[in-house]
Write a structure and sequence with these properties.
Length: about 325
């Protein structure tokens, strides 16, 4: 018994020792990796001041490594997914937010040609209007994820995009806060998306997508504007299809007019005729196949897919935007 305990104790201490050694080894290797990033930053022409300021602050961010390996179970259908992603609490929060910030939303919405409800819906889905935004330093997160190696080129690119934000003097190391996967602020922009799309909505010289609502709204709206958003149209509509409907027509590359879809037996969800407009080319989407929900989608839906290439994402945003619209708030 005593011997057994001793062996167990020895085994435990050995295992502790080896994990401690592995940790030190990891840290050392991470330091090497950061040194390599630093050399790369010098080669890319970043200023000595930025490099001296930023690199000593970069730490291995273990949470990022864990998060990157986590896999989430695919939701079964929209019937289970939508109530999960857009619960009543989120609808209530989004509607209250919309009402509270309506003046600014309307102003920014007009400037970029995007209806305010879509801006709020996007922020609601992305970060629960900031409630789910996290505060890890994005340079440590992206350096750690690049070091981990699974998607090195991707996160290395994001690391240098974040470095560029600091170099341009927009924000400091600690202000660039991200989730453990590198997504920043209310719109959950990756650093490269921030560089390309973040806007200074209130004209104070900063693009603060973490705590300045004007900047947040303008950045999200500008993204949609650049994705070809049309303020005169909505996203699409849920429809009914006949039993004999050919499911291969549910394909984003197939576009037809309302008239043509009407002739194929497609109707509004309440069974009435489709709109009479003839100026639009529309596609059918059936994310769960022929037995699931069917949607006719317009060009704005494609803008949502550009934001995040997933029908479940786009439909969640569209659904929340409808819940903001009905019943009318303002
Ligand atoms: Ca600003």
């Amino acid at each position: 018994m005593v011997l057994g305990k001793q062996i167990l104790a020895l085994a435990c201490s050995l295992s502790f020792l080896s994990s401690a050694m592995a940790d030190t080894e990891n840290q050392a290797t991470f330091s090497d990796y950061v040194a390599e990033l630093k050399q790369d930053a010098i080669d890319k022409g970043f200023s000595q001041q930025t490099i001296d300021d930023v690199f000593p602050k970069i730490k291995m961010f273990k949470k990022a490594l864990v998060a990157n390996k986590e896999t989430t179970e695919a939701p079964v259908t929209l019937e289970t997914y939508l109530p999960q992603v857009v619960p009543q609490t989120k609808v209530d929060l989004a509607r209250a937010f919309y009402k509270q910030h309506y003046t600014e939303l309307e102003k920014i919405g007009e400037r970029y040609g995007v209806q305010p409800r879509f801006i709020v819906a996007l922020l609601g889905i992305e970060s629960n209007l900031g409630q789910d935004a996290s505060g890890y330093p994005v340079l440590s997160v992206t350096a750690s994820l690049a070091y981990e190696g699974g998607r090195e080129a991707h996160f290395r690119k994001e690391f240098f995009a974040a470095l560029k934000i600091i170099e341009q003097g927009d924000l400091a190391f600690s202000e660039l806060k991200a989730t453990s996967t590198g997504l920043m602020g209310l719109p959950q922009f990756l650093p490269s998306v921030y560089v390309a799309y973040a806007q200074d909505g209130d004209g104070d010289g900063l693009k603060d997508i973490w705590s300045n609502n004007s900047d947040v709204f303008a950045s999200a709206a500008y993204y949609l504007q650049q994705a070809g958003w049309k303020a005169s149209e909505t996203w699409g509509r849920q429809v009914k299809v006949p039993l004999e409907f050919e499911s291969s027509l549910a394909d984003l590359s197939i576009k037809k007019s309302f008239n043509e879809w009407q002739a194929l037996g497609v109707r509004r969800f309440d069974g009435s005729d489709l709109p009479k407009r003839e100026d639009m080319q529309i596609s059918m989407v059936m994310p769960d196949g022929i037995t699931g929900r069917s949607y006719l989608i317009y060009d704005n839906y494609r803008g949502l897919l550009q934001w995040s290439d997933s029908d479940y994402f786009a439909i969640s945003v569209a659904y929340l935007s409808e819940r903001i619209k009905y019943p009318p708030i303002i």
